[in-house]
Amino acid sequence: MLAVLLTTAVLILIITNRHFNEQTKRYHEDILMKKEKAVLLSINYLLDSYPEVNEDNIVKVLETRILEINDIQKLSIVIYDLRGNQVLTTEARNPKYPVLPQNILDSLNKNDQYVEVGESLGDQRSYYASYNYIKDVTETKKLAIVALPYETNDIFLQEDMNTLIGSYGVAFVFIILLGAIMIYVVSKNTFNRLTSFADRIKETEVISNNLPILYDKDDEIKVLVDAYNEMLVKLKDQSELLADIERQEAWREFARQVAHEIKNPLTPMKLMIQNYMRKFETDDEVLDERTNRTANILLQQIDTIESIADAFSDFAKMPSRKDELIDVVEITKNTLDIFDGPSIIFTSSRPVIQMYFDKQYLNRIITNIVKNAFQSIPHSREPKILVDLSIQRNNLEIIIEDNGKGISDEDKKEIFKPRFTTKSSGSGIGLSMVKKIIEDYDGEITFESAEDVGTKFIIQLPYTHE
Question: Is residue 389 predicted with pLDDT exceeding 60?
């Protein structure tokens, strides 16, 4: 800012000085032109009294009256013949050109006039001169050349200019000092705010509850503050996403170990019970019945534990995506065939819906949600599950609705978290796995539920059919 102010001041002073010099030259030129016109009128008036004047006697005609014209106009007069030789002068000293240079004669022949402008003589003095032809009364015949040298003393004009520039200088010094003070105050204030802002940035951590900066002024700093506050929101979202990913990975590792550790002893246990039952023979029917019932209960519990281990294993070993062009309607129908047919109502807005998707992933989505739907329906109620496919706004929409006991308000926030389950024999990872599959496809899963009425899951997947 100081550089701009100084540059502006210097440029204005330079422009003012040049303008002042141009105005001074123009002023002296105007005076010289007016005097030239007056001298030529006086000479023409004199020549009117001499009708026989010519190039040879022009000097005799003018020499008797030229001093009088000089006194009246207060201007030196030099007369040259048409070849440029000096023949008459009112100056006491020798004129600048005893013989006119060829360039002046050429300019006179071309324009009938020549003017020398502002040649510096030092000591605040300048030299001007005008050259013109003296013609006869008919203005057709050239008789001689008249030169009017004009020296100026610009000391008073220069003093005026120095006074003006001095006034400009004082004004600009005041403006620059005032500008420097304002710049210092504004810069200091801005720097303090930026320092405070920088300190807050240094305190920002990835995993912490960073508080936004409250800033109510509408200036340039507010743009940075708004950007910082927006960054905090994104940082919080990304931290939560990162934490969720870490939890998912931790659960996969945990599920992998649990599945491995559980399934190893289950198989020999099951085989030992079955072998024991085949070899067990007694004559006591009551003992046989109790033994068989106990063995069946143990085998049933082993099967339950195996199913839980399989669920953990599936969660830990999510296969890599193998997208291919599939018929969603056909895959869904085939998946629903493993459940109780009369209890499921399947509808589709189109007979065929082809899109790129992993059919194993689609099978898992449908299987897990429909299985949970059946398990949520009380035994006293006839199961009724609706599965609907449709294309909505370039999305594949899958709706699975049941008439179960619904989801309580307390459980709605936990429903998609790993390990959460409301069933005594559930693993709590089915819906978590479904949600991850859907999010991997940039989709969304939501639900609507009312206690003792039922639950409706709504799945939106991008309809990628090309």
Answer: yes
User: Count of CB atoms within 10 A of residue 202's CB?
Assistant: 8
User: What DSSP letter does each residue of 344-404 carry, written as one string?
Assistant: EEEEESSS--EEEE-HHHHHHHHHHHHHHHHHHS-TTS---EEEEEEEETTEEEEEEE--S
CATH number at residue 366: 3.30.565.10
Q: What is the pLDDT of residues 406-447, one digit of tens each?
A: 888 888 888 887 655 555 444 557 788 888 889 889 999 999
- Write the CATH number for 34: 3.30.450.20
Whether residues 8 and 152 share a domain: the answer is yes
pLDDT for the residue numbered 209: 66
For residue 390, give the nearest of 350, 436, 330, 426 by alpha carbon: 350
Q: Which residue has the tokens 């062009």?
A: 325
How far apart are alpha carbons 302 and 435 in whole angstroms?
A: 29
* Together in a domain, 119 and 52: yes
Same domain, 450 and 396: yes
Name which of 77, 91, 68, 72 is nearest 129 in CA terms. 77
Task: Beginning with the edge strand found earlier in the chain, give each strand of the sheet holding 454-462 in spatial order.
Answer: 344-348, 385-392, 395-401, 454-462, 444-450
Is 186 part of a structural domain of the chain? no
The boundaries of the domain holding residue 440 are 324-462
182 domain residue, yes or no:
no
Q: Which residue from 81, 116, 86, 82 is spatially nearest to 99, judged by alpha carbons? A: 86
